[in-house]
Amino acid sequence: MDKVIKTFNTLKYVKRWYKHHDRWLNFMDEADKIQSALYLLEKFKIFSSERLMPLLGKAKEWVEKDDLLEAAPAEYSHLDSRIRYVVYGHTHDPLQVPVRTIKTPEGLKQYVYLNTGTWRTRYHKCTEGLGFIGWKNLTYTVFYTKEERELDFPSFATWTGTLKTI
Predict the structure, then answer these.
(1) What does DSSP say about strands 85-88 and 107-115: parallel, antiparallel, or unpaired?
(2) Hey, which bits of 19-154 come out as E strands?
(3) What are 3-18's pLDDT values in tens digits?
(4) Considering the domain boundaries, does residue 74 fall inside one?
């Protein structure tokens, strides 16, 4: 673990990323969260790697948040009132989340956050024992006009596929 952390922190990309994301006035910004987790892993050697993995999972949940999802409701205030979907991509994790519904004289308006993720290899921890398996996921979104689906509003479909190569 020590070697991985030291090597990670010496990477040029990581140093540039820290410099770009480390905000002096924002205690616990994204860079601080990562640096804190790495510091704790490096300094407190009280856990075996098997006991550490669940803690890392919890730390990941704390560090990872979807800033785009949090910003989605505000996006609608800048858009034409007919727009129902905010679409993002290239964020690694696909996600579809209902943002809000509004009752209007014309009917119920539903607003949705759609994120297509990224086509890249992801490594997933095996459920039995230690080890990881990698594969790629692809999520795409198809939008339909009102006429194509015979609905009162445009609709969408999202599909996710997985490619596993040896």
Answers:
(1) parallel
(2) 85-88, 95-104, 107-115, 121-125, 132-144
(3) 888 888 888 988 888 8
(4) no
